[in-house]
Predict the structure.
Amino acid sequence: MKPHKIISELLFKAVRSSGAGGQNVNKVSSKVVLSFDLNKSQSLSDEEKMRLEAKLSSRLTSEQILILSCDEDRSQFKNKTIVTKRFLDIITATLVIPKIRKATKIPKSVIRKRIKDKKNLSEIKKTRRKPDF
């Protein structure tokens, strides 16, 4: 995955933010909505698309489009930067392949040491008992 190539495939749309903001909120479109079409992407391989589809299934629309929005800042440019960074973080985190856990055997020396320690503790407790005449 090449970040600069995938960024060129993103579609940005400026929308009016919701909530309080006075007179300015009615005029300025500072909220940014990012949409990314997974099926039409040229920068991702088929394997990467399958992985993204499986991991992001709850965030994708029925047409396999990922939609993110940001209205944290009053500046449209800053919101665009924030939502782009958030998108890249999601994509890179999803494409990471986790290591396969290998089951290991407990070494025989560890088993012997544990049994030896148990016997040692047992002997210590035996010496604490009252003598049996």
